[in-house]
Design a protein that fits this description.
heterodimer; A: 476 residues; B: 513 residues; mainly alpha; 26 helices; 0% strand
Chain lengths: 476, 513
């Protein structure tokens, strides 16, 4: 039976190949700071994707990703264009039937359920002001990311558009998707989730896949309707920066989600989706690798919290800034708190809020920092020395693999002369193969558990990665 | 030391018996603490028995008592080799030693405490007793679940039960009197026996016997659903069923060789299992309400169905098809204790069965609602609901104990069970309850009815035994780790649909008769 690769990894190798664009670099352009983030709700009217779809505008029917064919690319290649359509599939109906605990499948309509529509079409869909051509059936369309087009649509192709400041454009409803941080926050709103669009344990049990967002990897896999060369011109350390920004934004979104989960009246608490799936969801085995590994300071059998969004934050450089120290201290507190059988709900909410606030300051500092090859080298060696992440669980190990790939590619792009590490791509592939090997033979879906997780094989892979980085990454 | 029918006074045995009598009566009276208090003697004619542990080997395992089978021409009320059977074949003999073996050491490493000295372990894996209330030969490290753990840790009965001089008087006592006045546990009573096994195999909060999730996480094998007759057979049995005893012994003890003794134990045991499961849940809930520690206010994960969380994720899977009684993904209670209730109720209540089934349904709904009302349940709701169900199950055990016996056709009724239950997909433990019950009932019917084997039924039973790994690890020579690996594999591979089909074939084959 053909082995299906985990969704997360499908394109990372392709990305490694694509990243080999070695042209002369323009002087690094450092963005002035974080672009403004749109808070929930707007009075502006949404126009619908067809307003972008004229042949002379964004539907040029050209090659995938080419200029003028943004709509064409989205329609033909981007899964977001089918986000609504999947709601009519039997599995979506089954999810709603389970989630809403309906007696019969007849009333199960994911395509009408506000919870589903909040991400599969648009946040706040019921309250949205819609133009005549707006249709929910278009899925996650242009304006979900680019902003409601009522005011900017007639202006964005005029000559004076380029003369407008970002603030002017923002006032017209235009969202600056070129800014890595702002873009990450847009993605995270659905791909990490938010209080009113929460892929919680009940929804996962009903059949929805668990969300495991990693920004750099998602960007690499995304069927881009813009040019990578433009991104690299803006951000010479593009991949590494996207990864780092993504780590901070995703963690912030996850903390805000935790805060919402802990404060929502009548919410299920503790919310199991906060924990590693495979910590509980594994067939009982004898001999048990888990029992050999131990429970890392937790009570035996207590599930570990926050294994996807937070494990790499301590590796993002030495704790220099105050915001970084504060964030990590708050996260430590949360790890202890959430490992309890009955975590204090109010305290969890407070601590998560505190961590999210300091993370935001950390992100702002990071976004305004210049591209720096030496810093990336330090980052890379820090990642390569994170044996404890490899040992802890599959999620930590997978995050580590994604981080190593993104940072090493960012470094190579930034400084082709010293950034090239012979054998690194091969040793990373080894790591990936063993992460993949944790899934059962004949894997059919992204729901499957990594039940053959073997930390000792992964540790060897990491040792190989370290050898490749020799001179950069000291052996521990 | 036994009541004998032929050649009543062989010299050697008399000598051994006399010696034992002297030794036993010379032993000092203990004043044990921490033992289950015996009920006071009726009429106040003598004080209630005092707890006292006698080492299995030196006490019961002496030559001339329960160490070797009698010569072929001798007939005794017992087999005479009970101790030998236990010591040579029964895992219970190793119960304490496993704590210091590789498995125990692994658990100790993860748990961070010495499992060979922790009462929470020793209460099931041996005996926890006041040193003053045990004989000199008793070794806490080595005893295992020895004779007194089940038969009663009271010195008063050792002497009279084996003495020729007191035999007449002893035989005239009822089993209940023997327990009440002398502390010899009435294991003839299936309710009593099932409850005793269940105190470890399910758990008993008052006696401090229950496995916690922390112990499981450290490596304690999952406790499988308990079925008294099958588990008893797998020890292996060191006693004889009534039908296996010589006719004269049956006559003396007033036993009926035609009684469906094992089937009766299945039915009574099922009611007792439900009662004990619910008592444990109720007591744990009550403890949550009294706890000062925030984590202690939440029910331990061990109170839930392990497979509710511990299953590999797969889609689509029978769990999603089966649907969810509450919010999807909430931790569910183990449902095996109610798997056999339909035939038990029918046997116990006859014409009133439908009404009682409805009462059970409502009780179970209450328990489930309490457990599903929030993650890990709401102890304030679970406790009273479980307590009420435990009381109902207690009445059921009494009622079925009175009536359950020898009506033929019970095997077929059991084989038809899943068709009548509301659960469309019996989980592994529930499926095993049904399959074990059918197997016991079928074999007993075949045996007592002197019927030729039914090839189709035999085939279906063999298939069930394979699917569900019905054979329990029996005997001391089995490899604990390999057995556990096999058992967990069968659990993983459980296919409710295939089980239902096989059972339907079995029901059909039994219908042929």
């Amino acid at each position: 039976m053909q082995r299906t690769l985990p969704v997360l990894f499908t394109l990372s190798v392709v990305m490694a190949a694509v990243a080999g664009d070695e042209g002369a670099r323009p002087t690094p352009v450092v963005p002035a700071g974080a672009a403004p983030r749109r808070e929930e709700g707007t009075d502006l009217q949404y126009q619908g994707v067809t307003t972008c779809a004229a042949a002379a505008c964004h539907n040029g029917n050209g090659p995938r990703g080419s200029k003028g064919s943004e709509y064409t690319t989205w329609l033909a290649h981007d899964p977001h264009s089918r986000a609504y359509a999947v709601l009519s599939e039997p599995r979506s109906r089954a999810m709603v039937e389970n989630y809403r605990r309906l007696k019969t499948p007849q009333g199960a309509r994911a395509d009408k359920d506000p919870l589903c529509l909040g991400c599969h079409v648009q946040p706040s869909l019921p309250d949205l002001r819609r133009g005549e051509r707006f249709s929910a059936a278009d899925g996650v369309g242009c304006e979900v990311c680019h902003g409601p087009a009522e005011k900017w649509l007639p202006r964005h192709y005029r000559n004076d558009w380029r003369g407008l400041s970002q603030a002017d454009k923002w006032a017209l409803g235009w969202a600056d998707t070129r800014d890595l941080g702002a873009r990450a926050e847009t993605c995270a709103g659905c791909h990490v989730g938010r209080g009113d669009a929460d892929v919680n344990h009940a929804l996962i049990a009903a059949g929805h896949p668990r969300l495991r967002f990693e920004y750099a990897n998602y960007l690499a896999r995304y069927p881009r309707h813009w040019r990578l060369s433009d991104e690299r011109r803006r951000y010479p350390d593009f991949e590494a920066r996207a990864w780092e920004v993504g780590q901070l934004v995703s963690a912030g979104a996850a903390l805000e989600l935790l805060q919402a989960r802990a404060t929502r009246p009548g919410a299920t608490w503790p919310e199991f989706a906060e924990y590693e799936c495979a910590a509980c969801h594994h067939d009982l085995q004898e001999p048990s690798e888990r029992q050999e590994r131990g429970f890392g300071g937790r009570r035996p059998g207590a599930p570990p919290w926050g294994t996807w969004y937070y494990p790499l934050l301590p590796t993002l450089g030495p704790a220099r800034g105050e915001s970084q120290t504060e964030t990590l201290a708050a996260l430590d507190e949360l790890h202890t708190l959430m490992a309890r059988r009955a975590p204090d709900q109010a305290r969890a909410a407070r601590t998560a809020g505190r961590a999210a606030a300091s993370l935001r300051r950390w992100l702002t500092a990071r976004e305004s920092a210049e591209a720096d090859a030496r810093r990336l080298e330090g980052l890379l060696s820090g990642l390569a020395a994170a044996d404890d992440l490899i040992m802890a669980n599959w999620e930590g190990a997978a995050q580590l693999y994604l981080g190593l790939g993104a940072v090493s590619r960012g470094l190579r792009d930034l400084d082709p002369a010293s950034g090239e590490r012979p054998g690194l791509a091969t040793s990373l592939q080894g790591l990936r193969r063993d992460l993949d090997g944790a899934f059962p033979e004949g894997r059919e879906s992204p729901y499957d558990s990594p039940n053959q997780f073997d930390p000792s094989a992964l540790q060897q892979d990491l040792r190989r990665v370290r050898r490749c980085l020799k001179g950069v990454a000291p052996e521990r | 030391m036994k009541v004998m029918f032929t050649n009543p006074f062989p010299r050697k045995r008399v000598a051994a018996g006399a010696l034992a009598w002297v030794v036993l009566t010379c032993l000092t009276w203990g004043n044990g603490q921490g033992q289950p208090a015996p009920r006071p003697a009726a009429g106040g004619d003598r004080p209630g028995p005092q707890p006292y542990y006698t080492a299995a080997r030196q006490g019961c395992g002496r030559a001339g008592c329960h160490a070797s089978p009698p010569a072929k021409d001798e007939e005794f009320v017992c087999r005479c080799d009970e101790y030998a059977r236990w010591a040579e074949n029964d895992k219970h003999a190793d119960a304490t030693r496993v704590l210091s073996g590789p498995y125990g050491r692994k658990m100790a490493r993860v748990l961070g405490y010495d499992v060979t000295r922790t009462e929470a372990c020793l209460r099931c894996h041996g005996v926890v007793t006041d040193p003053a209330a045990r004989d000199r030969n008793f070794s806490a490290e080595d005893e295992g679940v020895g004779c007194c753990a089940c038969h009663g840790a009271y010195k008063d009965w050792y002497d009279p039960h084996g003495s020729y001089l007191q035999a007449d008087k002893w035989r005239r006592l009822t089993n209940a009197e023997k327990e009440r006045r002398y502390g010899m546990t009435d294991l003839w009573d299936p309710t009593r026996r099932a409850a005793l096994c269940a105190s470890c195999h399910i758990g008993n909060f008052e006696e401090g016997k229950f496995v916690t999730h922390e112990m499981y996480a450290a490596g304690h094998p999952p406790l499988p659903g308990f079925e008294a007759a099958t588990f008893g057979d797998a020890m292996p049995r060191h006693w004889q069923l009534a039908r296996e005893k010589p006719a004269r012994v049956r006559a003396l003890l007033g036993l009926d060789g035609q009684e469906h003794e094992q089937t009766r134990l299945v039915l009574v045991g099922a009611a007792v299992s439900l009662r004990e499961s619910m008592r444990l849940l109720a007591r744990q809930s009550a403890a949550c309400l009294e706890s000062e520690d925030p984590d202690g206010k939440v029910l331990d994960y061990a109170n839930f169905d392990c497979a509710s969380c511990h299953h590999d994720l797969k889609a689509p899977r029978w769990r999603q098809r089966r649907g969810f009684p509450g919010v999807p993904g909430q931790v569910l209670p183990a449902s095996w204790p109610v798997a056999l209730m339909a035939p038990v109720i029918e046997r116990a209540y006859g014409e009133d069965a439908a009404r009682q089934a409805e009462v059970l349904r409502r009780h179970w709904e209450q328990v489930e609602a309490g457990l599903l009302s929030r993650p890990y349940g709401d102890p304030a709701k679970v406790g009273p609901a479980a307590e009420a169900l435990a009381r109902w199950a207690d009445d059921l055990a009494v009622a079925v104990g009175r009536r359950a016996s020898d009506r033929p056709g019970i095997a077929r009724a059991l084989a038809r069970l899943p068709r009548r239950t509301s659960d469309p997909a019996p989980d592994y433990d529930s499926a095993r309850q049904i399959a074990w019950a059918v197997s016991v009932a079928y074999r007993e019917e075949q045996h007592l009815g002197r019927k030729a084997p039914n090839p189709r039924a035999e085939q279906a039973l063999t298939s069930l035994a394979g699917q569900l790994k019905l054979a329990l690890p029996s005997g001391r020579k089995t490899d604990l780790s390999a057995g556990l690996a096999d058992a967990l594999r069968a659990r993983r591979a459980h296919d409710p649909e295939r089980f239902r089909q096989t059972l339907a074939e079995l029901a059909e084959s039994l219908g042929d008769e």
